[in-house]
């Protein structure tokens, strides 16, 4: 999986993000709006929990027989005129796609918003081959023109406000195509119009398009893309060649399974009852759509995730982003702190499984959560993210056994030694009481907290006040009063 090279561990990146007041304001406004819309449309359904249970069961059943469904999909897609390719990793997928674009003698491609292509770093691979890749989703266009990273699964430019978008359009559009109007304002309609005019010439001249897929139907070899803007429809129908990059976990057995998914996905993602555009295509159709249809089935670590009984439920994810919009951690630090194209709670469990826990960044991601459980409550396919985070934390700890102990592990060993013997614990209580009396005599104004602690504990007290130890422990008070009867 493509790394965000040079990104620090989550705690360090989060600390930097917390200092950005504009970022926090943008995130709070956007996630709050999406949360409210989702809650309103979900409350309309009396059977919402039954739909969640059905969606989870459908995904689990598909994953249980994934090999059979993938073979059926390949067989049926091929019969319909598509060419199916298999990619074990990002390098193989990029090589396949670059070769396909070169075979068409194309110097550019237009793209439908796709997490899978971001995951494999396709834009960078195409650029290295001298091929321009143009993002056509509005938010992805903002990110690309701003030389930025996506920070949200559904709304990649969620960290930008309208004024920032206007400045990006005015500064960058003219360098790569039709410039933005000189009198452009930050009115959303004007910004959308500028993007539409800028992209129109790219749609009309592009001979190759690249897409992902929200779902793949094994029974017929069909692919499904849902979107809100119509740019995807343009990419999927106008060019002569269409290349779709599809994670192997996106396969559903049959059309009735899709019926359930198309009820839970739009409500959970955009807060809509249904997506404005749902595009479905099966191979090649005479006199309609692309003449060459290629499908790249991408593994890139998914088989490893499937092999972990405690972690495979992450493959249920349908990329709705509901977990990001309710996460108190994500709302305050944004997506860049996660160092992955998959930010937020689902990224904290999916990324370390796809990439492994070999880097400091990936080892830190399972700790990027308060374990409040809000992510599980809103997940339309009932992924128990909090339990999975605990599982991954265990893997991180187990992986570090035998090496140099961390400060945390030394502290836990000291606590284990102290709590294993009653006499040690009582001695520690007496020492704490003496320390508490001494501190209280020195603290002015009757304050009951310390602003900072010494040594390694200073990092903990940087963000919170430490309580002064009590002058008398509960145990001592209990013995002194004869069981509480003074």
From TrEMBL:
One of its GO terms (molecular function) is metal ion binding. It comes from the Bacteria. Keywords: 4Fe-4S, Electron transport, Iron, Iron-sulfur, Metal-binding, Repeat, Transport. GO terms for biological process: lactate metabolic process. SUPFAM superfamilies: 4Fe-4S ferredoxins, NagB/RpiA/CoA transferase-like. PANTHER family: LACTATE UTILIZATION PROTEIN B. This is Iron-sulfur cluster-binding protein. It comes from Mycolicibacterium duvalii.
